[in-house]
Amino acid sequence: MTAKLYTINELSRILDLHPKTILRFIKEGKIQANKIGRTWRVTEDELKSFCHGELARKDIPVLKPDYDTLHDRISISAVIEIKEQNSEEASRISNMFMAVLNSESDAKSRSRFDFFYYPEIEKAKYVFYGSADFVTRIIEMFNQLTNSEDKKNE
Question: How far apart are CA 109 and CA 130, in angstroms?
Fold first, then answer.
């Protein structure tokens, strides 16, 4: 049995696209085609694959994650916002937490820290990602900071 082959003009009519668009899709690899002589040809299977996207592809293997425990699979994030009138204080706090992150001994924890300062609203945002232990330690440190500030103001 011979597979049905479509020309660029046939695809243009079927897909209601300009022939140059079909050629661009072929060059970009969105449509798999073979050059026969001086013309491009697309098989019926490749046309179906293009039309149905990832639903038509059966050759994509399903990867099973290789995780040992729930601890290895879990990642926690926390966002802490502080009203700050200047970026210097916000940066000082950021540097302190960057030092904590850099001193992490557990390389597998995949801890991460992002810092943003918005001068127009005078707000600092600290975003932490990592293991439950890491995020818990960070929150405890913020708690200690606020408790020490409260004791200073008494």
Answer: 6
Name the region of 60 (left: φ>0; alpha: ψ -120 to 50; beta: rest): beta
- Asked if residue 138 and residue 105 are part of one domain, the reply reads yes
Per-residue pLDDT of the chain (154 residues; tens, 9 = 90+): 567 899 999 999 988 899 999 999 999 888 889 988 888 999 988 888 888 764 445 555 666 766 677 777 788 889 989 888 778 888 888 888 778 777 766 544 578 888 888 888 889 998 988 888 888 888 888 888 788 776 666 6
- For 85, the domain range is 70-153
Same domain, 78 and 146: yes
Q: Give this prediction's pTM.
A: 0.49
Handedness of CA 18, 19, 22, 23 (dihedral sign): negative
Distance, in Å, from the CA atom of 9 to the CA atom of 15, rounded to the nearest integer, reads 10
- Same domain? 18 vs 47: yes
**CB-CB contact of 24 with 15 (8 Å):** no
The total number of structural domains in the chain stands at: 2
